[in-house]
Design brief:
The chain has 385 residues and is α/β, with parallel strands linked by helices. It has a single domain, classed as Alpha-Beta Barrel (TIM Barrel), CATH 3.20.20. It contains 11 helices and 15 strands. Strands 1, 2, 3, 12 and 13 form a 5-stranded parallel beta sheet that branches. It has a 4-stranded mixed beta sheet with strand order 4-5-8-7. The structure holds zinc ion (ZN). Zinc ion binds next to loops.
């Protein structure tokens, strides 16, 4: 009896080990566009979804901000993003890849209720970068799957609306992050830059089959992981011809005080998409860069004013791009579709703390839309219970 128990426990342990074992995942095979078809499968190709002509294809613009949101950077978000509309009458979108530390969850609730997308950027965002390169499946569950519960809990937002992740430092974790995504209800990753597929640019694709995308920050996934999408970070080209995956990481940008030069710089990169295969145009940045460089922020706002006036350009939440890619329709039809739906939530703001965090002995305060946690939430205890 006793041995039977030991054996059955051993069997359970082995079964779990098997599920988590990277070597045990099926290696992805070459993608065949005749087999891998929308809405649930797409090869890593530059063809426009649905075989549309560029002029009939909505030009999506995905604006994203990384890291913590707080009462400081919300000022920039309010001033630059709020109350914008696309020419189809729908509110303009943007996506926030948020990490836990120093995030004000009442601000999360505000952004969510303004219709913006809340996506995840890990609980710890810890250094060194090699931590992420070597992260296991279990590590990624603690960093992202647990963060989803944490975000929904403290920000009081609907857990099902959290679909996307961006790994800190854009450091890929091989199959681990995608396996975590598939098992925990995430739809897309937006951490993977491409330098080789910028003109024509790579459209989002699934990991059912082997990716042809260049791997800039290995390890990149090698397994077949159906149900997960890659939203490639199509790099910009700076003034010296170098690629940049984040706008604020360009090596040779225009002068940081020259608004006109920045406006033209943004337009040059935008036109590669708009006059090309209309793959989503990425504007990926950290708010701190705008805070330090007001001329760049002014150029950004001018750019948004321009695209919000164009009938074939749509500034949307990142997950709306995937909705379209899965069911591609021409611009004329897209403009007739209903706007994204928002199920509003409330926030009874509470100020909590100070807590002394067990992992680093620092003092933290938290602003939340739920009850105060017992201890400072961190890896392994995302709700601080
Ligand atoms: Zn970051």
């Amino acid at each position: 009896m006793k041995w039977a128990l030991v054996f059955s426990l051993l069997f359970v342990a082995l079964a779990f080990a098997d599920e988590d074992c990277e070597d045990c995942l099926p290696l992805a095979e070459t993608c065949d566009v005749e087999v891998c078809k929308l809405p649930d499968c797409r090869c890593s190709i530059t063809d426009i979804p649905g075989g549309l002509l560029p002029r009939n294809t909505p030009q999506f613009v995905t604006v994203t901000f990384d890291d913590g949101v707080n009462t400081r950077n919300i000022i920039t978000y309010r001033a630059s993003l709020y109350n914008r509309k696309n020419q189809n009458g729908c509110p303009a979108g943007a996506t926030f890849f948020v990490n836990h530390e120093y995030t004000d969850y009442t601000v999360i609730n505000e952004l969510y209720n303004r219709g913006f997308e809340i996506a995840l950027h890990s609980i710890s965002h810890q250094t060194p970068q090699s931590y992420w390169a070597e992260a296991s499946y279990e590590d990624m569950v603690k960093e992202f799957a647990d963060q989803k519960r944490q975000m929904a809990h403290f920000g009081n937002i609907h857990v099902d609306t959290i679909k996307g992740i961006r790994i800190p430092f854009l450091q890929m974790t091989g199959n681990a992050s995608f396996q975590m995504m598939a098992n925990h209800g995430f739809t897309y990753d937006c951490s993977w830059p491409t330098v080789s597929f910028t003109d024509p640019a790579l459209w989002p694709y699934t990991l059912d089959y082997a990716s042809e995308q260049d791997c800039i920050v290995p390890p990149c996934p090698t397994a077949s992981i159906p149900g997960t999408w890659v939203m490639p970070m199509v790099t910009w080209t700076d003034l010296a011809g170098f690629p940049c995956s984040m706008v604020d990481a360009c090596f040779s940008p225009p002068s940081l005080t020259d608004e006109n030069a920045w406006y033209n710089f943004i337009l040059t990169n935008f036109e590669r998409h708009y006059k090309g295969n209309r793959a989503p145009f990425p504007f990926f940045i950290h708010e701190a860069f705008f805070d330090a460089n007001p001329a760049v922020l002014r150029a950004f706002i001018r750019f948004l004013n321009l695209i919000n006036s164009l009938p074939d350009v749509f500034m949307v939440n990142a997950q709306e791009v995937l909705d379209w890619v899965k069911n591609p329709v021409p611009i004329s039809e897209y403009r007739q579709q209903p706007c994204r739906r928002l199920v509003p939530t409330s926030c009874r703001a509470r100020s909590c703390g100070p807590y002394t965090a067990a992992h680093n002995n620092l003092a933290y305060w938290m602003q939340v839309c739920s009850v105060c946690p017992r201890v400072y939430p961190w890896l392994g205890n995302p709700l601080g219970q």
